[in-house]
């Protein structure tokens, strides 16, 4: 048996601490599963394991990519699998810890990412024109090249891409080529639409066909290794104040100095992706995750400092926005684990091919010696291939998190006629879950109230005319 352990959960819930204790008990090695922590620098903002933590257990794939380099999920998968295979050869236990969903999912299961369609110019040496699949008809090839070329974030500025996308037939082209993905993506989600077009352009096969093949492929639903996953969960009412306090602590530790050093590198053109505003390299990690709040929302404050002006108002605004962004990111992580990761892990748990445990880490002092001992006991039992315990054994009060998400076709689109998008059209929602969240949102309720008041006013006005 060549096992793999994985510790997942929201930011600030204590994943690293548990992983270290688990590694000490099992003589294991910790492997990074966070897209930000692979890059050098930004130690405080990305909350990398400090020197003391790293001295307590061997750590891999942390702090090894220069900010001037690109690093894709395919490269991570290759590097992580190499580390795991080397550890297994030496009869060592790998423990993956992190919260980047596409890293974790691609590593745990076979064929969770499309590896056959690299972005031209990124991990592929071919230029865009030379990457066209020979099976495509010249007319459609020219159309795709035109759309992809004018929206490439590596050669076009964000404002130019936005303006181009307003008039270019992006969604219309995708609907003709791949109606399934056209139905799935929102007409204004240019990044996702572009990726679907790019996959067709480089492989000659529809994006939806790749996905269906992965689903039908028996190996795509199997874990790469017998895997035991621990999900650390914290109730928002207690977790969020801890996240706010952690932002304050980061500032005390020197977060602004890190930002200044990274800004200096950006000005010196030593950081890849500067021209695409947080969409590539280390800035891609910053842009996709909550660190973007640190850079984007503090930008005005840091600019004022450059001019010799220390504005308390700009500082307070940046801090408030960073805390808000951190909480939002934590909510997105829970949504992904609950709706995507947990259901698949529970199937593996029931089949005996893996194990999945939900741990209540709500309290700041939740990781007691007693709880850690229980986690270690479950881990050792998994290594011995004993019968799995109930998934919510350590958190019976939060077992409702393991209930199945809203059923329905995730690709179905729903229309809310009460709410209006920025383009003046009725708001589109992708999938039943997004629709349910929107219908219960304060924004939707305000729209309904506003529309009713408008109707009453029109009725009154018409009566006055009569």
UniProtKB/TrEMBL annotation:
The UniProt similarity line reads: Belongs to the IPP transferase family.
Among SUPFAM superfamilies, the record links this protein to: P-loop containing nucleoside triphosphate hydrolases
Q: Please identify the protein, giving its name as recorded.
A: Uncharacterized protein
Segments crossing the lipid bilayer:
none
Q: What's the domain of life for this entry? A: Eukaryota
The opening ranks of the lineage are: Eukaryota, Fungi, Fungi incertae sedis, Chytridiomycota, Chytridiomycota incertae sedis
Which residues does the annotated region (Disordered) include? 438-466
Q: Does the keyword Signal apply?
A: no
Query: Which GO MF terms does the UniProt record name?
Result: ATP binding; tRNA dimethylallyltransferase activity
According to the UniProt record, one GO cellular component term is: mitochondrion
Sequence ranges of Basic and acidic residues compositional bias: 452-466
| HAMAP family, per database record | IPP_trans
Q: Which UniProt keywords apply?
A: ATP-binding, Nucleotide-binding, Transferase
Q: Name one GO biological process term.
A: tRNA modification
């Amino acid at each position: 048996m060549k096992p793999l352990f994985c510790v997942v959960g929201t930011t600030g819930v204590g994943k690293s601490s548990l992983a270290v204790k688990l590694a000490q008990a099992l003589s294991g090695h910790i492997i990074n599963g966070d897209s930000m922590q692979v890059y050098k620098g930004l130690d405080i903002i990305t909350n990398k394991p400090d020197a003391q933590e790293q001295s307590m257990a061997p750590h891999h794939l942390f702090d090894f990519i220069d900010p001037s380099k690109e690093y894709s999920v395919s490269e991570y998968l290759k590097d992580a699998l190499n580390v795991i295979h080397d550890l297994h050869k030496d009869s060592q236990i790998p423990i993956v810890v992190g919260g980047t969903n596409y890293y974790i999912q691609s590593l745990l299961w076979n064929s969770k990412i499309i590896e056959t369609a690299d972005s031209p110019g990124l991990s592929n040496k071919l230029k865009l024109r030379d990457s066209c699949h020979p099976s495509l008809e010249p007319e459609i090839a020219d159309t795709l090249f035109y759309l992809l070329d004018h929206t490439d974030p590596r050669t076009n500025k964000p404002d130019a891409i936005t303006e181009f996308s307003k008039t270019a037939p992006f969604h219309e082209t995708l609907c003709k080529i791949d109606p399934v993905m056209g139905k799935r993506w929102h007409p204004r989600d240019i990044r996702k639409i572009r990726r679907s077009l790019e996959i067709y352009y480089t492989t000659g096969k529809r994006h939806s066909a790749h996905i269906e093949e992965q689903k039908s492929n028996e190996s795509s639903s199997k874990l790469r290794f017998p895997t035991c996953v621990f999900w650390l969960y914290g109730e928002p009412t207690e977790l969020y104040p801890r996240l706010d306090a952690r932002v304050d602590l980061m500032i005390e530790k020197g977060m602004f100095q890190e930002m200044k050093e990274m800004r200096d590198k950006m000005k010196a053109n030593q950081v890849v992706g500067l021209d695409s505003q947080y969409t590539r390299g280390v800035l891609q990690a910053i842009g996709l995750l909550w660190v973007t709040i640190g850079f984007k929302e503090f930008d005005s404050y840091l600019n004022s400092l450059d001019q010799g002006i220390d504005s308390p108002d700009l500082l307070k605004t940046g801090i408030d926005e960073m805390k808000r962004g951190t909480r939002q990111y934590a909510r997105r992580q829970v949504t992904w684990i609950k709706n995507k990761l947990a259901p698949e892990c529970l199937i593996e748990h029931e089949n005996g091919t893996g194990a999945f445990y939900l741990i209540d880490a709500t309290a700041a002092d939740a990781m007691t010696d007693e709880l850690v001992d229980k986690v270690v006991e479950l881990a050792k039992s998994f290594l011995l291939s004993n019968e799995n315990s109930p998934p919510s054994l350590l958190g019976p009060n939060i077992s409702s998190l393991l209930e199945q998400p809203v059923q329905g076709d995730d690709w179905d689109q729903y229309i809310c006629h009460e709410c209006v998008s920025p383009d003046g059209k009725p708001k589109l929602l992708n999938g039943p879950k997004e629709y349910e969240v929107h219908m219960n949102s304060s924004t939707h309720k305000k729209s309904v109230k506003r529309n009713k008041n408008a109707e009453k006013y029109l009725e009154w006005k018409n009566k006055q005319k009569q």
